[in-house]
Amino acid sequence: MKLFIYHTPEATPSNSLPDCAVVIDVLRATTTIATALNAGAEAVQAFSDIDLLMAKSDQWPPEKRLRAGERGGKKVEGFDLGNSPLNCTTDVVNQKRLFLTTTNGTRALQRVQQADTVITAAQINRQAVVNYLLEKQPEIIWLVGSGWQGTYSVEDTACAGAIVDSLLQQASVSLLEIAGNDEVIGALSLYHQWQDNLLSVFRQCSHGQRLLNLDCDADIEYCSRTDIMDIVPIQKEPGVLVKG
Fold it and tell me: What is the pTM of this model?
């Protein structure tokens, strides 16, 4: 395995794709996706464009769909849900498809949707993702952070570092062997700095501050938890993620 970390979808190479793309948007899209599928959602279908989401979701029976999403952290007007994982309880999402659009995470998914394998990762399902990678052994892996409107996000890099840390501990390989770019070394260092206090750094980072201003501290606390569910969201067709 060779790992490459890209802090934003815009930073990924434009002329190639990996064997496996791991999309990360800790605050909050990939945390919400994992939580919804774990709670029984039939699938999560991701869109970067709201108009396209509306057109596609109109084709589904109202009782079988939920429109979910945010812009600037705030729930899209007229949608059933925002982008809070805490709203994705079994009584709300079971056997329904979430049609999801977010400011950053759905753009990252769109960028890599033609890769052979696309999965999503967050702190809450970090170890499940690591186990999947160790089992499947893809040759080239991209860990793609979603960032914030094209810029760096510390929480996504910390999660990427957490994945690298666990792989190193379990795969009996050196950092030199698996690091495909310098970002892998930087992400691992960042995670080592904050691994015992992720909640603190999530509250300090710019998107954490945006969420705090929207009274979403409970979301931040939930998103900072590590390895609380054994689920790997995996793309079954472009933009459509199911429980792996």
Answer: 0.96
